[in-house]
Amino acid sequence: MMKLNRVIISGGGTGGHIFPAIAIANELKEQNPNINILFIGAEGRMEMEKVPEAGYIIKALPIAGFQRKNPFANFSLPLKIMKSLLKARSIIKSFKPDVVIGVGGYASGPTLKMANIMSVPTVIQEQNAYPGKTNKLLAKSASLICVAYEGLERFFPKDKIVVTGNPVRQQMVQINGKRDQALTHFGLQNDKKTVLVIGGSLGARTLNESMNVSIEKFSDAGVQVIWQCGKFYADQLFHKWDGKLPEGIWLNPFIFDMDYAYAAADLIISRAGAISVSELCLVGKPTILVPSPHVAEDHQTKNAMALVDKEACILVKDADAIQNLYETATNTLNDEKLCAQLAKNMKELGLPNASKTIVEHILKRI
Asked: Is residue 51 part of a domain?
């Protein structure tokens, strides 16, 4: 088994790419404290802030994504791609990595492409049930492909695939024995059912609109709600309710103690981003997923369907949520047998040691 001394990790754009990347880096550091890790991200993207906060060095490529809403913005894209490839080549040549790991996002494409050209071993960490076009192309030259879902032989060479799960922030899913403390934290009662609604740091319009029209119904039914609305929607929601939220409703743009939120919940309503789904499997609570239709390849629906096929969650379509979400949530909460089955099946899909498993496979394969 080879000892890795120098590793490049590339990708980002969203927390769903960045946090797994940092988790893998932390695990590499755990196994070899002297390892030298360099991140490569995209100029102006979230990773340029989050990676240094985690204690790692990052270099930026001038790469950008294809703009579907503004085609004129794509005229400079070929030049940005060429510049990114050349800069990636320069970084790889100077750093001399033993392996390059791609976690998805704009920077991952040119970095892994250039590593393949330079005969540096590459690893793909695919978070979703349906891979993006870039990873499908890069897979042909990769040494190893770490996936979170079964059945990806349709897209990747079978002999390169290992099912590892997605790395998640472990402190967020450590919820045992925290329920009473968690309810106190949110100012809620322990003799009532609690619904957790999470739409990501920016928020999810459909989830917020669905809760806005039904929040009084939840309160009247004696159901408590922890409602994370995201920063884009906080002002308008706070203005509407003007500090007069119905009893048992906690509303905030962010949840800083997600372990408490998960521990307090009897039912979770969420989007179906890859990392969110991986966390939810480890938490093992009854879950309703409302996939966003506004993502590439409609991958959130495919993430959700991978759980629906295992009878591990309930899916509500985005277009139906405003009309149906309240009824679906309360019917689920009132069906103890269904809740128990959903929780059991969800928990069985959890892969708790993804970071460690990924690193072990890299060490074996590279």
From this structure: yes
pLDDT in tens, 95-126: 999 999 999 888 999 999 999 999 999 999 99
How far apart (Å, rounded) are the C-alpha atoms in residues 105 and 125? 11
Report the pLDDT value the prediction gives residue 66, as an integer from 0 to 100: 58
CB of 219 closer than 8 Å to CB of 247: yes
CATH number for 175? 3.40.50.2000
Asked whether residue 332 is domain-assigned, the answer is yes
Tokens matching residue 335? 């069906």
pTM for the whole structure: 0.88
Question: What angle do helix axes 234-241 and 205-220 make, rounded to 10 degrees?
Answer: 30
| Token pair belonging to 116 | 């393949």
Q: Measured at the alpha carbon of residue 193, what is the angle toward residues 187 and 194, in degrees to the nearest 5? A: 55
3-class secondary-structure state, position 134: helix
Distance in angstroms (rounded) separating the CA atoms of residues 9 and 213: 44
Q: Are 51 and 22 in contact (CB under 8 A)?
A: yes
How far lies 309's CA from each of 97, 155, 274, 327, 351, in Å?
Answer: 40, 19, 16, 22, 17
Q: What are phi and psi of 43, to 5 degrees?
A: -55, 135
On the CB side of 75, CA atoms within 13 Å amount to 2
Strand partners, 38: 8, 57
Q: How many CB atoms lie within 10 A of CB 130?
A: 21
Domain span including residue 141: 6-166+352-365
Does 1 fall in a domain? no
Number of domains making up the chain: 2
